[in-house]
Sequence to fold (445 residues):
Amino acid sequence: MFKFPFFRKRKKEKEIDGTKPVYAFEENLSANSLSNKAYSEIERLADLGPRLTGSAKARMAAKNIAAAFEKFSSDVSISEFSVDNKRPYIWTRVVAVMLPAASLFLLVGLPYIALAVTVLAIAVIQLEMVDSRGIFSRFVKKESAENVRATLYPEGQEEQCVILSCHHDSAYLYRSRDHLKDIYIPLCTLLYLFALSLFMILYEALSRKLFAFNLPSVIPAVFITLALVLSVLSLKLYNLFSRNASPGVGDNLSGVGICLSLSEYFSKRRLKRTKLEFISFDGEEAGCQGSRHHYGNNSYADGTININIDGIYDEDSLYVLSLDGNGLVRLDEQLSMELSQLAKSMGYKMKAGKLSFLGGATDASSAAKAGIRAVTITGMVPDAENSSHTAEDTIEKIDRKALEDVISLVIKYIEGLDGRKPEESEDEEGSFLDPGRKYRISIRD
Fold:
């Protein structure tokens, strides 16, 4: 889906000034104003350019985000961790080589070895593409990556916690625009080779040639020839990814901008009993390594909620995900329905949705695995025209109205949650975001 990386004239790279502003006037905190501020933050961070996981640009983005959070929170931290930024593509190269190898073993009458190779290839796909275990990470050089966390404490006693998360790294570009075909063909070839290997084992066992070197007869040769042809076509999987990165504006500086705007809002409209954590992860595009590191090294109380924001493009393409991790990780379905129903009551087109197999994963999957009630709000519909992971993922693809919808929804949900008493039912309505309301900002010391 990529042609060439997107370049444009960039401003001089420098970190954002972390000086805290002094407010002594009424400032408009309407959803429209907040979305404009989010857009400005997105535009500013986009000037850093593509930000591969663990790269210098990604670390610079983390420091800029931390400085922006420091304007609204006195508790901001950067946590450093080691990351394998080659994880997205090493498994593709391994599998691409294994397929023709299995075909050749079939050709020379060694179907049991071909079966072992295909089973191993399936295990690699399961562990790397689906589970992202990093089984090859020990053989590659690690890079230094950084997560950013900012905390806003409630006015009263803390009774619950909501994590608002996003990620600031950007993805590798695909070499082919029709990259899904370059993934599906090898997967189908692998299944075909697995079935053919079983058949040939049975066929040669009945012919009493199983452990003897032999060339296939005419009919098996036809099927093996087809396997060889498919294996050659599958070699495109070896070069599935380019070494260049997407600008990554919608995926996912859009989420970063929204989190920064929400941190400003809630710093001036303090909650009574809900602690808010804002986290921007690195490593999402390389197997959610940043969020795995964070949730693996931090504990949260039961009932903690994570609203992950990832890939906000068009207003009509917004979904609240209840299934993540290539369709294999279950998120909190009740929370997904609550948010989608609340959005509907606000007049927004935001349905509950699910990531399909090969649909990728978001950082909410890491939270869900850690026992946290998690969902992802996204606008990345699996569509050929989607600009995520492409060189066209630029600021022009961001719809300000989509930013406004997400900001409004999150504020209304969190304020309602904070105002809801423990004995109240899940249907009780909390406070509302007034699109035209102005709030008085107290002077900061």
User: Anything to note?
Assistant: The chain has eleven helices and 13 strands. The radius of gyration is 25 Å. The longest helix spans residues 179-206.
